[in-house]
Design a protein that fits this description.
The complex is a heterodimer of chains A (366) and B (362).
Chain A: E1 5-9, H1 34-47, E2 51-54, H2 63-72, E3 78-83, H3 90-104, E4 108-112, H4 118-123, H5 130-149, E5 154-157, E6 162-166, E7 182-185, H6 189-198, E8 201-205, H7 209-221, E9 225-234, H8 238-266, H9 271-282, E10 291-292, H10 296-299, E11 305-308, H11 310-322, E12 325-332, H12 335-356
Parallel strand pairs in A: 1-2, 1-12, 2-3, 3-4, 4-7, 7-8, 8-9, 9-11, 9-12
Antiparallel strand pairs in A: 5-6, 10-11
Helix pairs in contact in A: 1-12, 2-3, 3-5, 5-6, 6-7, 11-12
Chain B: E1 6-10, H1 33-45, E2 50-53, H2 62-71, E3 77-83, H3 89-102, E4 107-112, H4 117-122, H5 129-148, E5 153-156, E6 161-165, E7 181-184, H6 188-197, E8 200-203, H7 208-220, E9 224-233, H8 237-251, H9 253-265, H10 269-280, E10 289-290, H11 294-297, E11 303-306, H12 308-320, E12 323-330, H13 333-351
Parallel strand pairs in B: 1-2, 1-12, 2-3, 3-4, 4-7, 7-8, 8-9, 9-11, 9-12
Antiparallel strand pairs in B: 5-6, 10-11
Classes of the chains: A alpha/beta (366), B alpha/beta (362).
Chain lengths: 366, 362
């Protein structure tokens, strides 16, 4: 029985950007807001957020370097570094992650993304198909795990990757682990298989508890965890939260819609993105009283939002907890306001409810 | 006009002065951060412009390590080693650009082709020496195209292919759109590659007379030449020679065996020939250029040995043939670097006031 763990995604477009996802990624400058991002990291550090996601992509700064930078200025919060196999040798990835761990006392975990956009993967010299990318990911993490086990030189010959006598003399240190936690993102069966084989937690785009539950059986049955991604619109009352949501749509305007049309097309090979987009375009706006699809056509698949008062949100999170979801990754709108508010108002309510339902470990909560 | 002299130091054996005498498999890749940081701060005070962040399986990752050291230092630059074939060029540029924004642009690059095929295979790289150079050429074509930022980059070569590549993280340093690039090597391929892609070739030293023609050819084509060389300087000539000889006895018997093994594993032209000559020939090439430690510490242990006046004169001799940069190692590093900063650098400046550039904020 573990307490629910909460993660937050660091925005590239600005910690005060309530319209996250609405701007064409070709126009994002990921470094103009570094001080704001650092401020968000400090708030997360103080507020009880477990880790901060540093996504990867051409419109992003490098997550490994950023994790080292932000981690130097914080004490407790961890950094979940997004990795795309295919842009780096597994042996070097392990060296980089272990080096960051050495500097940050082990405060690094990994978010594995297979890449949802072949066009962008070709920027990086990666011309494999969706399924081939999963095969390579499988080989990649097989090599990384072998290096983390540190049982001697690693030999591996796969269809795509090969190493011989590989060793890394910088071990992973910290948090009484010998490797970082691995989160596998993706909504396809392949992604779930990968999480079971190589990971600690499957991270999926949110949906209703009823639609999420069946897809988790394999992962939970294998003793792995499941996590969900949501945007969060939380205000003192549900009415205010809903109003805030509609104000965002006003603000985003029709320009944001055409950005999504382009991104929807580019990311069509991602099972999860496609499904969430169609939620936003085709389905009821409120599949649950706490779940709103209204932002998706303007801000993309990561804009599926939990909406409500602190009590509403806490109740919603417990609904997912009951089907076995133990981790959440949030986007705030905007992040710099939402994260501290979540930590102050929602988190204590969640802990109280977990305690009531006997979902907390008896002693020594995280 | 020959540019002024610039000085760099290798951070690679800080806190572990005998590491070059040991087998790399036995060396920890997690050095003590505070020792590195202390060294970096001392380097700033000693007039050193940049620190070499070496690459290898017994090293921490140079990029992450530079972010961490850069946070607590002000002026020193980090000369980040990179081997092609291990990271996609687009991702490499993204990492370097990010590093540049985090530490005020204090990053330069040391391109190395990799000299031990065994170790390249740790990373999944199975190419031979000549192919590695051909791939390195493609790698840097792509990197330069990304740094020029004149639109999406398409490239189709034998080893790399990218399509429509763009990056949104710019390289940020005062007055620059890309990092300064050093290229390490000793073969004809290395010279050609340096001229094509780098700002400075870093090579192992020979006597000024033997190097002059090669240096002249490279400099004439607009690329600087720097020397990767050890430094053994003491108040007097006799003390310096005694320190050099004492160095061999500290290395121990195993060290020569280890480096003999390395010599047989490397396919680096420069390493092999320097090593072989060090075994075969007199250990004093000139009154100040000594190869006696090479069998025990490897080819980068070829050393300038002497008093401060002698070393300053030696540097001037190299400067006269067109060598403008030096990347030093010491045994151990810290006292050697402090002695350099206190005793040699002022003499270099005195010999020719315009000769030595003490780095300041750009």
């Amino acid at each position: 029985m573990t307490a629910i763990r909460f993660h937050w995604s660091i925005p590239g477009s600005g910690v005060k950007d309530a319209l996250r996802g609405a701007v064409d990624r070709d126009h994002v400058n990921p470094i103009t807001d570094l001080d704001g991002q650092l401020e968000l990291c400090r708030r997360a550090d103080e507020g009880g957020i477990d880790s901060l996601l540093l996504p990867t992509g051409y419109q992003r700064a490098d997550p490994i370097a950023l994790a080292t930078h932000f981690g130097n200025a914080t004490k407790r919060v961890r950094y979940m570094v997004a990795v795309r196999p295919g842009t780096i040798s597994p042996t070097l990835l392990v060296t980089q992650v272990n080096t960051v761990a050495a500097v940050l006392g082990g405060r690094i975990s990994i978010n594995v993304v297979a890449g949802h956009n072949s066009t962008e993967m070709r920027y990086y010299g990666d011309f494999l198909s969706h399924d081939e990318r999963f095969l390579r990911s499988d080989e990649f993490w097989t090599i990384c795990h072998a290096l983390w086990r540190a049982e001697g030189p690693v030999d591996f010959t796969g269809k795509i990757l090969r190493v011989e006598g590989a060793r890394v003399n910088t071990p992973f240190t910290g948090e009484s682990r010998n490797r970082p936690e691995l989160y596998f993102g993706g909504s396809s069966e392949l992604a779930a298989d990968m999480a079971v084989k190589h990971g600690d937690c499957l991270l999926r785009l949110g949906d209703t508890p009823a639609r999420i539950a069946p897809g988790l059986a394999g992962v939970l049955g294998a003793g792995k965890e499941a996590g969900l991604l949501f945007s969060m619109l939380v205000r003192p009352t549900r009415k205010e939260a809903i109003e805030a949501g509609h104000a965002l749509i006003e603000q985003a305007g029709d320009g944001a819609k055409s950005v999504q049309d382009k991104f929807r097309e580019q990311s069509a090979e991602s099972v999860g993105f496609a499904a969430t987009y169609s939620l936003g375009y085709n389905q009821a706006e409120w599949p649950e009283p706490f779940l709103w699809t209204g932002l998706i056509p303007f801000m993309g698949p990561l804009a599926l939002a939990l909406v409500g008062s602190p009590d509403d949100i806490a109740d919603a999170l417990l609904c997912y907890r009951r089907i076995g979801v133990t981790q959440f990754l949030f986007h705030g709108r905007p992040d710099l306001e939402t994260l501290p508010y979540f930590c102050q108002e929602v988190l204590p309510r969640v802990r109280a409810k977990e305690r009531e339902e006997g979902l907390l470990p008896v002693a020594g909560t995280r | 006009m020959t540019p002024p002299l610039r000085f760099h130091w290798s951070l690679s054996s800080v806190g572990d002065p005998t590491r070059r005498a040991r087998a790399t498999t036995t060396i920890s890749g997690t050095p003590i951060f505070d020792e590195y940081l202390e060294f970096a701060r001392q380097a700033e005070d000693c007039g050193i412009e940049s620190l070499l962040m070496a690459f290898g399986f017994s090293r921490p990752d140079p990029i992450a390590w530079s972010v961490a050291l850069g946070r607590w230092t002000d002026r020193i630059k980090f000369l980040v080693a990179v081997r092609s074939g291990i990271t996609a060029p687009t991702y490499f540029v993204q990492q370097i650009n990010t590093l540049s924004t985090l530490i005020g642009g204090r990053v330069t690059i040391n391109v190395v082709a990799g000299r031990v095929p065994d170790e390249q295979r740790y990373y999944g790289d199975y190419l031979d020496h000549d192919e590695r150079y051909a791939r390195t050429d493609e790698f840097w074509q792509i990197c330069h195209a990304l740094w020029r930022k004149d639109g999406p980059v398409d490239f189709s070569g034998k080893y790399y292919r990218v399509e429509g590549a763009i990056l949104r993280t710019p390289f940020e340093a005062p007055g620059r759109t890309r990092p300064e690039i050093f290229l390490g090597g000793n073969s004809a391929q290395a010279d050609a590659l340096a001229v094509r892609h780098a700002d400075c070739l870093l090579t192992l030293p020979d006597t000024p007379r033997k190097m002059a023609a090669r240096v002249g050819r490279i400099v004439a084509r607009g690329t600087e030449v720097g020397l990767l060389v050890s430094l053994i300087a003491r108040p007097t000539h006799h003390e310096a020679v005694a320190a050099a000889e004492a160095l061999i006895s500290t290395a121990g018997d195993r060290s020569a065996v280890i480096h003999d093994e390395t010599r047989h594993r490397t396919d680096s032209v420069g390493y092999r020939s320097l090593y072989d000559r060090a075994i075969r020939e007199s250990s004093w090439r000139t009154p100040y250029l000594w190869t006696g430690a090479v069998p025990h510490f490897g080819p980068p242990a070829i050393a300038l040995v002497g008093s401060p006046d002698e070393i300053a004169a030696a540097l001037a001799e190299y400067h006269a043939i067109g060598v403008t940069q030096f990347l030093f190692m010491g045994y151990p590093d810290l006292p050697e670097m402090q002695f350099f900063g206190a005793e040699i650098l002022p003499r270099v400046s005195a010999l020719a006031p315009a000769q030595a550039r003490r780095p300041g904020p750009d």
